[in-house]
Amino acid sequence: MFTIADKVFGSRLLTGTGKFNSAGQMEAALLASGSELVTVALKRVDLKGQDDDILSHLRHSHISLLPNTSGVRNAKEAVFAAQLAREALETNWLKLEIHPDPKYLMPDPIETLKATEELAKLGFIVLPYIHADPVLCKRLEDAGTAAVMPLGSAIGSNKGLKTIDFLEMIISQSNVPVIIDAGIGAPSDAAKAMEIGADAVLVNTAIAVSGDPARMAEAFKIAVIAGRMAFEAKLGSISSLAAASSPLTSFLDD
Amino acid sequence: MFTIADKVFGSRLLTGTGKFNSAGQMEAALLASGSELVTVALKRVDLKGQDDDILSHLRHSHISLLPNTSGVRNAKEAVFAAQLAREALETNWLKLEIHPDPKYLMPDPIETLKATEELAKLGFIVLPYIHADPVLCKRLEDAGTAAVMPLGSAIGSNKGLKTIDFLEMIISQSNVPVIIDAGIGAPSDAAKAMEIGADAVLVNTAIAVSGDPARMAEAFKIAVIAGRMAFEAKLGSISSLAAASSPLTSFLDD
Amino acid sequence: MFTIADKVFGSRLLTGTGKFNSAGQMEAALLASGSELVTVALKRVDLKGQDDDILSHLRHSHISLLPNTSGVRNAKEAVFAAQLAREALETNWLKLEIHPDPKYLMPDPIETLKATEELAKLGFIVLPYIHADPVLCKRLEDAGTAAVMPLGSAIGSNKGLKTIDFLEMIISQSNVPVIIDAGIGAPSDAAKAMEIGADAVLVNTAIAVSGDPARMAEAFKIAVIAGRMAFEAKLGSISSLAAASSPLTSFLDD
Amino acid sequence: MFTIADKVFGSRLLTGTGKFNSAGQMEAALLASGSELVTVALKRVDLKGQDDDILSHLRHSHISLLPNTSGVRNAKEAVFAAQLAREALETNWLKLEIHPDPKYLMPDPIETLKATEELAKLGFIVLPYIHADPVLCKRLEDAGTAAVMPLGSAIGSNKGLKTIDFLEMIISQSNVPVIIDAGIGAPSDAAKAMEIGADAVLVNTAIAVSGDPARMAEAFKIAVIAGRMAFEAKLGSISSLAAASSPLTSFLDD
């Protein structure tokens, strides 16, 4: 169990709704994941209507929506989008994504901090997507962020935890939950993120583009549990020399 | 489920019995691991008596013993040890370990192949511990090995899958089960081994030296399941460029 | 040859002056490095006097000083320090370092951007030390930076290019020189930085703490040349499969 | 300077003759590399004639030929090929390559040891190409090998030093020169190999397939020198925490 703002979650696996072949496939995967917090791009939601197709597949009592601002280019657009989302989706939770760069989709630290400050003042529960920047994380805390969401590697790359050294710094210093976002490409990556002490992970592409999204979602679900369990049970240290687990006195000596 | 020789196993996690603080702690961890094949060093077994302390903790109907030859220095000693083990423990299964090097405990390819040939002829089910050497693996197949057990990194180092490129070669070519042995230091390593298609993993040090062996054993148990599930569900490819999981058309454009 | 602002440099190796055992050892290493741009911490310079010991060892016609602001905690302090430096050292070049974090010494993206904007307006040639953040690099360009100095890994860690994926993004997009700073621990790291297309590298700790700083400085000097040469000659691609460099038709077939 | 058998070499860069576009391009690259020991596949040499095209480009007083047995599949073929080579090329030096595997071209440890034993008895100076197997290296020493040539990664892959942990074991234990062979894809890889204490490296593909082989050969030449120099000057240790090279007392405190 872990807490963001004042909300307690049983699952440490957050999921996203992009890139699935169909809404039905998406729904099956989300249910298999056990995820209780699911991001949905504002752009994909019909903010005026009631019967949006995506939303209809997300109406499960254990699932809370986490609208994201993907597509906004600066703090001003982010704040506007957040307000529309709050009204339409009746939630003040927000995954803040500001990535003006069309090629690598890396987040903008300056606009993200600015938007976090404003949105926190406006009463939003802000979860900003950021580079694995330890100082930015501390500044986001000062600005009232509810959590930080540093990336493991580029969005959708499936490259895993390329930023691990910096994630470890962030985790060691953070007073808010650290949720590793972007780049997690396999259950082993998710387990590793949990082993180093992350509070949670967000996975989307690796589930959606796999050969069997529902089964892959289940694999991520249990890998996250395994990683957290290992963190709590404390891993042994890594050594450069070998050390036999079996006795090495010669078999025939005695 | 997977099969070694003609025996079917439900669990793909093999465990070892070394380095635990007590026999009770060991037993609890082995039970938590769900492991059905457990290595025990011949040196530690009282081959003459019936009431050996270690063995008494391994008497569970779902657990088969896999005696290992740790401590032997060449094929001749290995064959002799194997014969003693078969008589005392009433099993013809054998984990063949020949590592004459006292510092890094790396296995000897020449003596291991030689011993495998002889032991297979003598009716043993041989599971040799080896470097991640693709050609050696094929030669062991020709010699009648029941499986191959290439190392991930040095025994007891907890360094993980340093040999991954070679493990992938071995897996792609093998006609016998590939069980990754040595160096697996965390559940994420075990999950990764399964994701690349290993049939099973053997873990000992990482469980025994953790802060809570029984809990760590459970973490490995489910990480192995997660990794296998991901292998079967097929992971997406890794790309160098980012690819958004949320739509990127500008939020306010339309 | 490469250019920062309007100044042409023959050497792509920048060096620092910290951590040497003596000023004489430092001078010998700097001369062996061939470096033409050498950072010196403002804190270590006697800004009032003329006969500062460190400076006396840096008076060589081919060496330009690059004062750094190590120790400042925000943009305001940085601008004040820069103005003192300009007056005392008679240079408007400045390595901007703002790292409020005492443990990991990671740079502050927000204050660094703010200080860069102000200092560029005040006529400084600003070279900011930053995390390997592609979006921040573009914003620094807009703010008038003369170059960007993203880190390879934590200062003084000798861990090498842990941020390589992000450095490649930065290099592919930058309109100003990219100088890899911090973490370069060996000549092979410096060569690698040049191979991926960095314009230059800054090395200090790895030279100063080595067993023989002057010889290590020379090793870095030529490694940087080798890496640049390889970049210009274009490296072959990396492949997953083996490909023999010798013919593989069987020797005895014909 | 380093010594193999009783021969002293000034250059620690060995090169190969495969994959070049033309013999002229090859010759220019070999000269630029400064290499004094150059492998040539027996298959490519006209063993009967005097005016073989490749050989005519290798007739330089500072270059010794190192015939390789690429294409042989076992010890018997290797011995036969070696004897032909000795007669035709008037050298008893031999790079022993036995890789029966057509896909990954990994060397055969068993046949390589067997051939080394026989060839050493026949008076050959044997340099066997092997996996990075520490125990095999010691056995080859016992068999009379003149050097060991463990691989960094698969032949022609340009993947670099994937076996680095095992190379370090080999170097720490070896009584004969260790020459890292196969997989070195960039000057930074060659520098790294030298930094960990290898005696020499062999590079072929990375030079031959580059955009400018002669220039790339020169880059490798100086990278090898840089790496060796760094090894001799002793690199500083790698640490997990940052450590400033500039003083960190706050700039404005005093």
UniProtKB/TrEMBL annotation, chains A, B, C, D:
<dbReference type="Pfam" id="PF05690">
    <property type="entry name" value="ThiG"/>
</dbReference>
<keyword id="KW-0784">Thiamine biosynthesis</keyword>
<feature type="binding site">
    <location>
        <begin position="182"/>
        <end position="183"/>
    </location>
    <ligand>
        <name>1-deoxy-D-xylulose 5-phosphate</name>
    </ligand>
</feature>
<comment type="subunit">
    <text>Homotetramer. Forms heterodimers with either ThiH or ThiS.</text>
</comment>
<dbReference type="GO" id="GO:1990107">
    <property type="term" value="F:thiazole synthase activity"/>
</dbReference>
<dbReference type="GO" id="GO:0009229">
    <property type="term" value="P:thiamine diphosphate biosynthetic process"/>
</dbReference>
<keyword id="KW-0808">Transferase</keyword>
<feature type="domain" description="Thiazole synthase ThiG">
    <location>
        <begin position="3"/>
        <end position="247"/>
    </location>
</feature>
<comment type="pathway">
    <text>Cofactor biosynthesis; thiamine diphosphate biosynthesis.</text>
</comment>
<comment type="similarity">
    <text>Belongs to the ThiG family.</text>
</comment>
<keyword id="KW-0963">Cytoplasm</keyword>
<feature type="binding site">
    <location>
        <position position="156"/>
    </location>
    <ligand>
        <name>1-deoxy-D-xylulose 5-phosphate</name>
    </ligand>
</feature>
<dbReference type="InterPro" id="IPR013785">
    <property type="entry name" value="Aldolase_TIM"/>
</dbReference>
<dbReference type="InterPro" id="IPR033983">
    <property type="entry name" value="Thiazole_synthase_ThiG"/>
</dbReference>
<dbReference type="GO" id="GO:0005737">
    <property type="term" value="C:cytoplasm"/>
</dbReference>
<comment type="function">
    <text>Catalyzes the rearrangement of 1-deoxy-D-xylulose 5-phosphate (DXP) to produce the thiazole phosphate moiety of thiamine. Sulfur is provided by the thiocarboxylate moiety of the carrier protein ThiS. In vitro, sulfur can be provided by H(2)S.</text>
</comment>
<keyword id="KW-0704">Schiff base</keyword>
<feature type="binding site">
    <location>
        <begin position="204"/>
        <end position="205"/>
    </location>
    <ligand>
        <name>1-deoxy-D-xylulose 5-phosphate</name>
    </ligand>
</feature>
<protein>
    <recommendedName>
        <fullName>Thiazole synthase</fullName>
        <ecNumber>2.8.1.10</ecNumber>
    </recommendedName>
</protein>
<feature type="active site" description="Schiff-base intermediate with DXP">
    <location>
        <position position="95"/>
    </location>
</feature>
<dbReference type="InterPro" id="IPR008867">
    <property type="entry name" value="ThiG"/>
</dbReference>
